[in-house]
Design a protein that fits this description.
This protein is mostly helical and 398 residues long. 81% of the residues lie in helices and 0% in strands.
Length: 398
C-alpha cells in the first residue's frame, strides 16, 4: 500500500508553470503589504495617534477584509477566480497609492478600510486558486511550499520597510509597496486559471447566506483565529515593544520568524500528508506558548531572536496544516467558501488581537500583553485535544 502511495506522489506534479507564477504573484502582493506592517504604527504615532489608535489602524484593516471575504468566497465558487483576483489587486493598488495622501489618522483609517476590502478579495482568491492547482495527494506539502512565498516576504519586507523609513522616509516606502503590488497584478494576469464546474442544483437549493461560510471549515478556522490573535499583538506592537524595553532593530523578529517558517513548512507539510494534522498541531501549540513567554521577558536582541525562532516554527507548521485540513474536508465546489472562512478567521484574529491586546498594553505594558496572549495557545491545545478525544478516529483528515 505504501508503495502505491509513493508511486502516486511521484506521478502528480506539483511544480507546474502556473504554480510558480501564482507563488511569485502572491510573493509580490505580500511584499508590499509586509513592508507596511511594522512601519504603519510609527506613521500613526507621527500623525499624533496613541496605542489604541495604532491597534485601530491595524484592526480596522483586518475587520474590513473579514467583512468582504465571505462574499468573495461565495462569488468565487459561483462566477470564477480570475475576475475577482483582478478586482482585489486593483483595489489594493489604489489604496496603497493613496497612503501618501493620508495626513490625518481619520484619512488613514478610510484608506485602511479600502485596502482591507482589496486584501480580503485578493488573498481569498489566491488561496482558492492554489487549492485548485495543487494535487490532492500533495496538498499539505503544496500548501507549505505555496506559503513560502508569503514567508519570504515576511523575512525581507519588514526589515526593508524599517530601513527605508529610517533612511528615506515614508514616501519612498509607499512607492515601493505600490510597485510591488503592480508586479503582482501583472503576474496574476499571466495565470491560466481553469473555470470550475459548479453544481448548480446544489447552489440553487442553498440560500445565499449559507453559502457565505463553509461549515466544514469552521473548526480549523477557529484554531487559526486563536493563533492569529497572538500575531495581531506582534505585528501591531512589537516595534513599540522594542522601544519600551530598549531593543533596537526589532525588524529582526520578522526575519528570523520568517526564516524558520521557510525551514519548517516543507517538513510539516510532508508530516501532515503522511501522518495527519495531530502530529503537526499539538507540538506547534507548545512552541507558541514558549515563544510568547520568552518574548514577554526579552530585554535583548538574543531573547527576541529565540522567541522569533519558536514563533516561526509555530506559524510555519499550523497555518498550512489547517488550510490543507479544511480543503480536504470541503467539496471542490466549496473551496472558495472554505478559504474565505479560513482567512476570515485569520482576519478576525489579527484584528481582534490588535484592538484588544492594544487596550491591554495601554493599561499595563507590552511585556504583560505578550505574557497574557500566550494563554491563547493553551486554549488552542485544550480545544484541539478535546476534539481529538471526541472524534476518536484514526483518519488523517476528518
Amino acid at each position: 500500500m505504501d508503495a502505491i502511495v509513493e508511486k502516486r506522489l511521484e506521478k502528480e506534479k506539483l511544480w507546474t508553470k502556473d504554480f510558480i507564477i501564482l507563488s511569485l504573484s502572491n510573493l509580490f502582493l505580500f511584499f508590499g503589504f509586509q513592508m507596511l506592517l511594522p512601519t504603519l504604527p510609527i506613521y500613526v504615532k507621527e500623525l499624533g495617534g496613541r496605542d489604541t489608535t495604532v491597534g485601530l489602524v491595524i484592526g480596522i484593516f483586518t475587520i474590513s477584509a473579514l467583512l468582504i471575504r465571505p462574499f468573495s468566497g461565495a462569488f468565487l465558487d459561483t462566477f470564477g477566480r480570475k475576475l475577482f483576483l483582478l478586482i482585489g489587486l486593483l483595489i489594493c493598488l489604489i489604496a496603497i497609492g493613496t497612503y501618501v495622501l493620508a495626513t490625518t489618522v481619520f484619512l488613514l483609517l478610510l484608506i485602511r478600510i479600502i485596502h482591507g476590502f482589496g486584501w480580503g478579495v485578493s488573498t481569498t482568491t489566491f488561496g482558492t486558486v492554489a487549492s485548485d492547482i495543487i494535487p490532492a495527494s500533495r496538498r499539505g506539502e503544496g500548501m507549505g511550499y505555496y506559503g513560502m512565498s508569503t514567508t519570504f516576504a515576511m523575512a525581507v519586507a519588514p526589515v526593508t520597510g524599517i530601513w527605508i523609513i529610517n533612511h528615506s522616509g515614508f514616501s519612498l516606502l509607499f512607492l515601493l509597496a505600490f510597485i510591488s503590488t503592480v508586479i503582482s497584478l501583472i503576474l496574476s494576469q499571466v495565470l491560466k486559471i481553469k473555470t470550475q464546474r459548479i453544481d448548480t442544483t446544489t447552489s440553487n437549493n442553498t440560500n445565499f447566506a449559507s453559502r457565505l461560510f463553509e461549515k466544514t471549515a469552521l473548526f480549523p478556522s477557529l484554531l487559526g483565529a486563536l493563533m492569529t490573535f497572538t500575531y495581531g499583538g506582534i505585528v501591531g506592537f512589537i516595534t513599540l515593544f522594542g522601544s519600551e524595553v530598549g531593543i533596537e532593530n526589532v525588524g529582526w523578529f520578522f526575519s528570523i520568524n520568517a526564516l524558520f517558517v521557510l525551514l519548517v513548512r516543507p517538513i510539516s507539510g510532508k508530516l501532515f500528508d503522511k501522518n495527519g494534522h495531530q502530529w503537526v498541531l499539538i507540538p506547534s501549540a507548545f512552541f507558541g506558548i514558549i515563544s510568547l513567554l520568552i518574548l514577554s521577558y526579552s530585554t535583548t536582541l538574543l531573547g527576541l531572536i529565540i522567541s522569533a525562532t519558536f514563533f516561526g516554527i509555530t506559524f510555519g507548521s499550523i497555518q498550512p496544516a489547517l488550510q490543507a485540513w479544511l480543503i480536504h474536508r470541503a467539496a471542490p465546489n466549496r473551496r472558495g467558501a472554505a478559504n474565505a472562512t479560513f482567512f476570515s478567521a485569520f482576519d478576525l484574529g489579527i484584528g481582534g488581537g490588535s484592538i484588544i491586546l492594544g487596550a491591554i498594553a495601554a493599561v499595563s505594558s507590552y511585556a504583560m500583553m505578550y505574557r497574557l496572549s500566550s494563554i491563547l495557545f493553551v486554549i488552542f491545545f485544550i480545544i484541539y485535544v478535546t476534539y481529538l478525544l471526541k472524534t476518536r478516529t484514526q483518519k488523517f483528515y476528518q
